[in-house]
Specification:
Elements lengths: L1 H25 L6 H34 L6
Helix pairs in contact: 1-2
C-alpha cells in the first residue's frame, strides 16, 4: 500500500517538475545565443527528468495493480 502511494507521489512530483519548468523553455530571449542555450538547458533538464519520473512511476504503478498477489 505504501509503495503505491510513493508511485502516486512520484507522478505528482514529475508533473510538477514538467509544468513548473516547461514555460521557461519558450520564454528565452535569443539576443545572446550562448545565454539562450544555457537557459534552455537549465529548463530542459528538469522537464526531461520529470518525464522520466512520471513514466517510471506510472509504469510501476500499472505493474503493481496488474500483478495482484494471491492472498490466502
Amino acid at each position: 500500500m505504501i509503495v503505491k502511494a510513493l508511485y502516486f507521489l512520484g507522478i505528482i512530483i514529475g508533473l510538477y517538475a514538467i509544468f513548473n519548468n516547461l514555460p521557461y523553455i519558450f520564454k528565452v530571449d535569443f539576443s545572446d545565443p550562448t545565454l539562450a542555450f544555457g537557459r534552455i538547458l537549465i529548463s530542459l533538464f528538469p522537464v526531461i527528468a520529470g518525464a522520466v519520473i512520471v513514466y517510471v512511476s506510472a509504469y510501476n504503478l500499472y505493474l503493481s495493480f496488474k500483478n495482484k498477489p494471491d492472498r490466502r
